[in-house]
Amino acid sequence: MKVEIDDVKCVAAGQCVLLAPEVFDQRDEDGIVVLLDDQPATESHPAVRESALVCPAAAIRLVEP
């Protein structure tokens, strides 16, 4: 799995950080998403998929083989 983010679309809701803090973080100044790991470990995949589903701005894109 490869994770891509569109930080322009991000509305800083923080759901991704709550669900997968090992993959996502937020900038201190405005809360916009920061991608920590664009190819997360297999055990993180369920949380990353859920993060993409619940993102209110649809700012997370998953590329799966």
Describe this structure in words.
The protein has a single domain (2-63), classed as Alpha-Beta Plaits (2-Layer Sandwich). The chain is α+β, with helices and mostly antiparallel strands and 65 residues long. The chain contains 2 helices and 4 strands; from the N terminus they run βαββαβ. It is globular, with a radius of gyration of 10 Å. It has helices at residues 15-19, 45-54, and strands spanning 2-5, 24-26, 33-35, 60-63.
Features:
Alpha-Beta Plaits, 65 residues, globular, alpha+beta
Radius of gyration: 10 Å
The top level CATH class name = Alpha Beta
How many helices in DSSP terms? 2
What order do the helices and strands follow? Answer: EHEEHE
The main sheet orders its strands as 1-4
Strand content: 15-25%
| Structural class determined from secondary elements | alpha+beta
The largest sheet, given as strand count, sense and whether it forms a barrel, is: 2 strands, antiparallel
Q: Any guess at the CATH architecture?
A: 2-Layer Sandwich
Roughly what is the average pLDDT, rounded to an integer? 97
Please give the share of residues in helix. 10-25%
Q: CATH topology, which one?
A: Alpha-Beta Plaits
* Span of the ends, CA to CA: 7 Å
Stretches where pLDDT is under 50 for at least 5 consecutive residues are none
Q: How many structural domains in the coordinates?
A: 1
Q: Which overall shape is indicated by the principal axes computed on the Cα atoms?
A: globular
* Count of beta strands: 4
